[in-house]
């Protein structure tokens, strides 16, 4: 019975709390858990303040989860009000002078050796959010929200009618607003960097250009060599009838095998798979489809791996969008589309779909999972072409924000880049420039997908160096050893380190695209029986 | 993609909003919809303020819904922090001087004829919440929350071991705290009234005593006459195997037939059925089991029937716990256990369970639903004995709060009252005084169950007066006519009127227990072939 004295519920209800047994996830050796310097009164006061914010943010995440898994259509408008009310409260908390004073008193001292890395990360992340909230006037944020809603509708209608002109005016308006956002947030080199930093702290487009150039060239070249070879893969075994209920049961088993902790999470269905957290590491949810289950499972085990000492702070969770994507891609692609992994897991698939896979062996299954087929649609892309899709978008959105191209030229430029990078060209805007929802909301997110692929290959390489018997272990059905290592060396640290620093700590090397280009060439030269380049 | 500039989500996610088509529920003739006097700047400012509170409260209700339908066990502690953080925000909003000033400026003027009933209700409900928040110091509320948590554990352990002594100390502590709550809230006659008012505004125990006395006597006497008659009912047709999935499908069909609008709600499973709202009338959820589905459906159609003009205010929803229970009982019992209703609906049941009900006709089914069987357990009680269970609890909790009895005497008094009212006696505390969770949380809720039964019979009587062909319509499968009438005359008005005034407006008569005693005698004299008293 919720306490109605706190005017909480619509009507008093008698509820017995549903308490599932809480398992304790194996945490790292307690000596290695990050710790805040709670003895310092400023740190402990800051923590109390940020705990409150994190708790309230979690309520928003719960409401969004519900919105995407269960909410009835009639509630769309009122849910918008509810989320907006919470954002108002959070805005006030982030701009509160008490927080300013606390951060002001800690900004310098926290750099001293007497403070921990967790303390420094905490102050850094709090300053980031505080700065954003104070730099962006309420009016701008509200107009952005309104424009996004309208822009989303315009995009949907434009896509339905395959007519870019219906979307162009709202896209132009969104660009104008985001340029103002960038100007207010500030940047060193280009406006675009200010937006990129929202998703990938510390990253710049000049760094991205250096990282992405070899990826673009190797991907293009590999695709051409595969096409030229005439070798093809028969993926028809994946085209059968797979009833949804059995698919969900399979997802659950694969996630359990992967190490996703169901006592600290839940799996559901939604039109688009996603992962969210209501307080890492204790409540991390995901929605799935098979294969997407392993991708979302990667996001989820990352969130579930946050040290419990970071709970209810801005440091719980993943270090950045790129860092997050590195884990979804590591598990989905580097591990999850490898032959050793399926040597260990294919029996689970066969049990779930005994008739569908009666005459399919693990070799044919893994080959089917890795079929390369240039497509116009990003979300259907294989590992070889995926980053080309991303690089098209990155190059275009960067130019849009920096004012180098006009909105009207976008469809033509899009099609030309597809021709140049993938060798195919959209026949209309719906399968071209209008295919993704992203630009109806903002800019700077796309490159983190490819960053994630680069980081995942670098970490995959490291795992092989640490575990010389990596493939044999996977083939025996064991993935826990890899998860344990990742938890200790990466996941436990949450958002304490900036993404590039984190990658360097995990792999002992700054971000380096060669790991990915090597990985891609080696894997697909083998699968398509091409002459080796390495 | 949620706007990460508002530091909202753990990580940016790309989500396409799931938009089911929003149907428009038939609203009452627009001339009869309650309206606020928005032209008055004080009313419009108050509305803006209360909208914000209602929006935030809804986020708490969403989190509680999740807690009871989906939340993993590992999240129990962190969810507690999240709900507490929200309560802190709400407490500040309710005690804010800006609200005090607004209410002070409206308290007198709003009584003038130039303001609407909705305006008066709004100010009244806002004052109630404001007064509560200002009268109860934060420390007391927090201690209450702590004691409730401990008390819940003590109750669970005591029930498990059937040992009242394990619960007694925490029960005593809870009573002490609630006496302080009552003293701070204030009361005219007895302390208990202050707590009762939390659930049933305007009700007092002296009024309840008058209302309950005839119910107690008629129920006791009817039970004795049924027992003495030797007539029995064979309810074995309800004891078969009913797979959960088919049960849920049946619940969905019965709810649709009843008029529950799935485009503004959702059905789920939980250990205990309940109804909640995230913003009536647009998002009203319920969890179900069969029969409980009709009970919860009654709560839900009441919430869904709130006029849309009341949305996002404290006036959206049900007028009180008793008013709410009147609708769950009206649909579950007065309508839902009647022969005419099942003449219209039994084919749906037979379609859901063709083998189980192959040889059962509607007469046998309805008789089975109405079997009278004194039991020690309230939640299993039939219509004849149910209120005796409640009156035992009401009499005891009133005496506890008013200081008329000592905690230690409770088990003995409980057993004696069961012997006197129901003719049976618990053999241990688990099936006696420890059976309900309620007293680990508070006092004053129990009587609203019986009030609901009284009100439901009075409204049922009114429906028959308005619709002389009521039974024939039900038997033809039509319930929409009754729902429409209830929406117009009761549901649309939300919390505008105090519960007793509302009942009088709906039935043209103040609360009168004779409708219930007549209903009970007539129904069960017929079912059990007793000599008629009326």
Tell me what the structure shows.
The structure is a homodimer of 534-residue chains. Chain A has helices at 41-69, 76-95, 97-106, 117-135, 138-160, 164-185, 191-199, 205-229, 244-258, 292-304, 321-335, 339-352, 362-369, 383-401, 410-422, 447-466, 470-475, 480-489, 499-507, 514-527, and strands at residues 265-268, 275-277, 284-287. By secondary structure, chain A is an all-alpha fold. A 3-stranded mixed beta sheet of chain A has the order 1-3-2, with helices on both faces. In chain A, helix 1 (41-69) runs antiparallel to helix 2 (76-95), helix 9 crosses helix 12 and helix 16 (447-466) crosses helix 20 (514-527). Chain A is globular and about 65 Å long. Mean pLDDT of chain A is 91; it is low at 1-24. Chains A and B meet through helix 1, helix 2, helix 4, helix 5 and strand 1 of A and helix 1, helix 2, helix 4, helix 5 and strand 1 of B.
